[in-house]
Amino acid sequence: MYKIPFYIGTFLSWFIPGRENRRHIRGKINVFFFYVPIALFVKRTYGEKVKNIKFVRQISMKRFTCVVNNKYYVKIFRFVPVKRLNDYKFLLDFIRPYLKVQIPEIFVAKHIPMYVAEKISGTDMRDFDKDLIKKNEKKIKKQVMDIIDSLQKIPVMKIPDNQRFLQCVQARKISHEIITKKSVLAHRDLNASNLRLDDKLNIVSIIDWDSMCIVQKPNTDKEMFAKLWKFYTK
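User: That's the sequence. What structure does it adopt?
Assistant: Structure tokens below.
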């Protein structure tokens, strides 16, 4: 039932000219169809009446994000079982004490493939002036590298049932790999939209951890961030 709106939104938005326009129309249609389950979920989770639900973005056909009451992020997935999101929540809770930056507390729906997370502090890196970001490139990169180093120091061998997290939570398949001394945790999506900065350009929060997993290549996050940085600063 909850997979249908993604198809309806995609179909109707196809007649709208412009890629960005199609994306926004598709997202708004999906928010319309999911309004009731989102509202009920937020009410059950936080005991708050839903006053407004605003579409944020829908980069892929598999998920979209919205903000409820200008306070909570709600992310809805397609083709992702609730159990997989609970795996993600478990891993997120496990790593929280090890990191200095803030990461969101999340609650997973029982029957719908979506989760709601409290909105966390900081401003989206994309909202800063591009020249200012370029000017402080060295400072920002150092912070990201420190965060990656902290993430990689988390003892993956101590993660209960860690074999589940060898591959990304969103696309996990049966893995025949084994945990080794070189295995580390990776965020796998450290781009501008997931880094939140304060007024002094200090990274205070990181969101979008649902691609996190245990990887065998320690440079996974650093290489991915380098590519994303080049794309961002074109």
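The first strand starts at residue 53 and ends at 57.
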